[in-house]
Design a protein that fits this description.
Layout: H1 20-30, E1 55-60, H2 64-73, E2 79-85, H3 89-102, H4 104-107, E3 116-118, H5 121-125, E4 132-135, H6 139-151, E5 155-158, H7 166-178, E6 183-185, H8 193-203, E7 210-217, H9 237-241, H10 256-259, H11 269-272, H12 274-284, E8 294-301, E9 313-319, E10 325-330, E11 337-342, E12 346-350, E13 353-357, H13 362-366, H14 382-395, H15 403-422, E14 426-429, E15 434-435, H16 439-443
Parallel strand pairs: 1-2, 1-4, 2-3, 4-5, 5-6, 7-10
Antiparallel strand pairs: 7-11, 8-9, 8-14, 9-10, 11-12, 12-13, 14-15
Helix pairs in contact: 6-7, 7-15, 8-12, 12-15
Length: about 450
């Protein structure tokens, strides 16, 4: 029996309100004849949706990924960003200014009510006029923010890796389903037609009997050994740390690619990139609702000094119930991407590239390539992924990357990290989501949070 996981968000209780969003959901359920997405041109002047029809969104996190998604969101005529949130005052103000400028043409028509900014995400979630949130904070915050957003009845687009631990992922799945929220995980390769084609061919048996999948991602970075410094004005460092251990402030610690390779906040690229490429392997295996039975990591190289402490290289092997072997390693061993190897043929896919062998098999791939495909011309799946999320907010259907998919993919990545740190073969029960007869490994499925944050 799986242990129930409860999460106490402390300090602020978020009341569930009946608001415009609840009304839109009821209307969508009742008016079956209404199309899932109404073309912008049919909704008013300037190709914009009527103000009452737009999905209002709050951005939690204002870093690099938030800015990338922001550029897609402002192009969506049926969405409008009404708030930003970040403990970096400068970053959230800059993102807020971007939205104000982008929406300037709407303001003259009385359709733009302004964009607020907050230090504390709970203040943003307390607003009854916000329908959905986009979470792009560091990973150690994802679970707390996602559970709070679900309890506040907000729909959620959450960047990968979905959570920092397996137990946190279980808590998010429960909160999302209990509160009937739409939840999209930012594993946008699922919205890329090239990856979908590769998965379709594998699952149709075109390669013959699937034998092995090789997954390559970047290794983690090494961080500088720097002295602590005073916290700069305009940065709430204590809130940035949140549930993570208290450590002295160093500017390098809070830089995107440094925190992502630091174990206090993430398990590094094993999940940061693994949640993209391992996800395609899981999809190809038709294993979205399960996982491997055995995990063994035969190599793990960790930095000897500096801030970063996630492995710079590793080699992990998984065995699934159908005896398919998945090899997951840093790209110093396996090239970036996913290579499916079957009894009759092999197929390699990466962003902007899909190839096959042997030569006799290549025509089967060529005949199925989408119109306009050019090798090494990557088409970012993010706009389609965001569009899918907004469409599902209206239809109340599950998006292409559900909360369960995000959790299961992240779990497979977490298993690699745990096996790499313990340096031993582990057995996994994907139904109970526990290691078999290994208390030490099971303890690593959950991490203690710094007070007052609790799980």
């Amino acid at each position: 029996m799986r242990k129930k996981i409860s999460m106490n968000l402390s300090c602020t209780n978020i009341t569930n309100h009946v608001n415009r969003r609840r009304f839109l959901k009821g209307a969508a359920a009742a008016a079956v004849s209404v199309p899932m997405f109404v073309p912008a041109a049919a909704l008013g002047k300037n190709s914009q949706a009527a103000a009452g029809e737009r999905i209002t969104i709050g951005m939690i996190g204002s870093g690099q990924r938030a800015c990338q998604l922001a550029k897609h969101l402002v192009d969506m005529p049926d969405a409008q960003i009404t708030a930003t949130c970040d403990p970096f005052l400068k970053k959230r103000k800059e993102l807020k200014a971007f939205f104000k400028k982008a929406y300037a043409s709407r303001k003259a028509k009385g359709t733009f009510k302004g964009c607020a900014d907050y230090n504390d995400f709970r203040d943003l979630l307390s607003r009854t006029d916000i329908d959905a949130v986009v979470i792009t904070s560091p990973e150690h915050w994802h679970a707390l923010m996602a559970v709070a957003a679900a309890r506040a009845k907000k729909d959620i687009y959450c960047e990968k890796a979905m959570t920092r631990t397996v137990a946190e992922g279980q808590a998010v799945v429960k909160a999302v389903r209990d509160n009937k929220c739409v939840f999209q995980v930012g594993q946008q390769q699922r919205s890329d037609p090239i990856f979908r084609l590769a998965v379709d061919m594998v699952r149709e048996g075109v390669l013959g009997k699937l034998k092995t999948i090789k997954v390559g991602v970047p290794g983690n970075r090494t961080g500088p050994a720097v002295d602590p410094q005073p916290v700069p004005e305009g940065f709430d460092y204590d809130f940035w740390l949140g549930p993570a251990p208290l450590k002295p402030y160093q500017p390098e610690r809070v830089v995107n690619m440094t925190w992502m390779s630091t174990y206090d906040y993430s398990i590094g690229y094993q999940a940061g990139w693994g949640c993209h490429n391992v996800d395609i392997a899981q999809w190809g295996l038709d294993a979205d609702d399960t996982g491997p039975l055995e995990i063994e990591s035969t190599r793990g190289v960790f930095p000897s000094k500096g801030i970063c402490d996630c492995p710079t290289s590793w080699h992990t092997e998984y065995r699934y119930a159908n005896d398919v072997r998945v090899i997951f390693a840093s790209q110093d061993e396996i090239p970036m991407g996913i290579r499916f190897e079957g009894s009759d043929a092999r197929l390699y896919v990466n962003r902007g590239r899909i190839t096959a062998g042997p030569d006799s098999f290549k025509p089967k791939l060529q005949n199925r390539l989408p119109a306009g495909y050019k090798e090494d011309a990557y088409r970012d799946g993010s706009p389609m992924h965001v569009r899918n999320f907004l469409d599902c907010v209206r239809s109340r259907k599950d998006p292409v990357t559900t909360v369960e998919i995000g959790h299961r993919t992240n779990t497979v990545c977490q298993l690699s990290d745990i096996a790499t740190r313990l340096k031993r073969k582990l057995r996994w029960d994907p139904t109970k989501e526990q290691f078999v007869d290994n208390d030490e490994a099971n303890k690593m499925l959950l991490r203690k949070m710094r007070a007052p944050w609790q799980m």
